[in-house]
Amino acid sequence: MKELELKYGCNPNQKPSRIFMEEGELPIKVLNGKPGYINFMDAFNSWQLVKELKEATGLPSAASFKHVSPAGAAVGQPLSDVERQIYFTGDMELSPIASAYARARGADRMSSYGDWAALSDICDKSCALLLKPEVSDGVIAPGYTDEALAILKAKKKGNYNVIQIDPDYVPNPVERKQVFGITFEQGRNEIKIDDSLLTNIVTESKDLPEQAKIDLKIALITLKYTQSNSVAYAKNGQAIGVGAGQQSRVHCTRLAGSKADNWWLRQNPKVLNLPFRKDIRRPDRDNTIDVYISDDYDDVLRDGTWELFFTEKPEVFTKEEKKEWIAKNTGVALGSDAFFPFGDNIERAHKSGVCYIAQPGGSVRDDNVIETCNKYGITMVCNGVRLFHH
Predict the structure, then answer these.
(1) Which residues carry out catalysis?
(2) Is the pLDDT of residue 339 over 80?
(3) 114: left (phi over 0), alpha (psi -120 to 50) or beta
């Protein structure tokens, strides 16, 4: 198949719409549903991310995409009991690829609502069962077991989008796109992100354990497919906060840091033990958790709306308690798709437990950035590689 006609483009008024190959056949098969323009944009970007993440780490990898940027990305390391609780996997037996998706989807459940899922490995039954109850638009993977495909075909009243991609497909090394009727052309970004990019440590601290290397590679590969400017925080084999598409570097760092803080706050015993009503919908539960850990929850309690979500009135999670809990987070890795122009980014990153940083370097204020890292004992790598993605 050389081309596939789509219902419309980014918006319903943008017709005609299609995906096609100028040479050769499309490297995908639509096994179920009718994916649209944005679905395919998410599918192809997310597939590249998980394919590269698997190559860089040797671990099954997954991503949760929304509007051509990752809400989460992760490798298939085992989940702790707390992680199982905050990702709502219960006591389900999880394969490595299912663990990867649970992490990718669970890092930022607000942003992952209605996501596109990408899997580096064959989708098995346990991964399909994780996808089944989630609000999701579709999934791309190199293959599906018969059990998994049957589960996914029954999702969304039979309309769930399931795409199989040829894992051996190699794109043309030159890519093109049009803007305002004008064609842009560039070489594909084929930079390989591996341990060789983590050797130029410029700070006094030289400590860079193996898990930190994995987390930095996750952050950098995530950024390679995130709309720029972008910053990503990672820990324990997953991205825990992604700041995408901001015009200011420090705003990327703040946005991603606030998401990383939320991920950590969700592990506080007060959040883990919230007395939810059994009939609460999954999206309502996720939204309520987000409100509970925000600074606005006192107002919600005073309004008395807690009865809509809880069996009893939960105790307030005070600002002081949240600050104290966030201060306990440590060992976080951070990647940036371009250099940090000032040390204020490091100051903000430190507040979210960042101990390891990878960034290109090359700012006229590199000395200030390094000095700020040294103040907090942070290990920073300057790899000379910019990862803008537009």
Answers:
(1) 66-67, 229, 390
(2) yes
(3) left
